[in-house]
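Lab notebook: predicted structure, single chain.

Context: the supervisor wants predicted structures on file for every construct in the current expression panel, including those that have not yet been purified. This is the next one on the list. No modifications to the sequence; it matches the entry in the shared construct table.
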Amino acid sequence: MGKFAKNVDPQAVAEKQAANVIKQLQGSVLKSIGTVRNYEERLTIVAKIVNQEINTSLRNITVEQAHQYLTDRGAEVGQKTLDMERQAIQCMMQHISKKLSPNQTLTVIKSEHQQNLNSRSYTQDQIKAVVDAQTEKNALSTEIAHASGLRAHELLTLRERSDREPDPRPALDEKFQGRDGKIYTVEGKGGLVREVLIPHHLAERLENNRLDSTKEVKDRGISYTIQYDIGGGQRWSASFSSASNRSLSWSAGGHGMRHTYAQERMSELQKTMTYMKALEVVSQEMGHFRPEITQVYLR
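Prediction complete. Output recorded below exactly as produced.
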């Protein structure tokens, strides 16, 4: 893991790391001048962020770190930029750092930037109205997504903590502070597994919907092995939007539950800690790579 002195210009370090990678790729792997220029520009940005946030160099980032980086960048940039950064990192990992084999690729991450530009949070009364307009299984998923800050597809990946180990991630002692419940794990974007807390009354209802045996389902072209008979993925998202439009005459989508979670948790935690400490705690609970990403959800 790289160490970077505080008196060194971060931009200059990032530019040098990106240039060194591109120098090895140009001519042999990359033949287009335009691609070389675009990749070097993108890798400079990647290098600066990973240097500062995880104290490692560009070519030393792992596949897990790359996936998390791309997941968080999806809240800041559009799909075209996100795809370019993924392709640049992937090329480096295939040919320079060898973190990927020539046939392996990084998971395509969908940008959330456009839909995150405006506030998408719901009030408690609005959530209740949506829940009341849904079927029992989709309603339970909405309540869990709200209580635990889950993405639509993560509802399909719920497992008890004893069934699956989360990926090693930094965690403050204050994680989940002030809330009581049962720890589960979910698989987020890029396959990263993290812990989530589900309130006991919802966990009990979730366990009542446990399947006798696991079942394979496909959502947006991806296969999932589900353990619970609840809503999730695109079907739950469609149910949420339909129920929201019927009950409220508007919809901010199921992803609004993550916005609501972030804002409610920040309000709770700031009663006992500083804004920046609360932001770091919430970022860990939501599985964000950098606390700044969580700020997108606080608008």
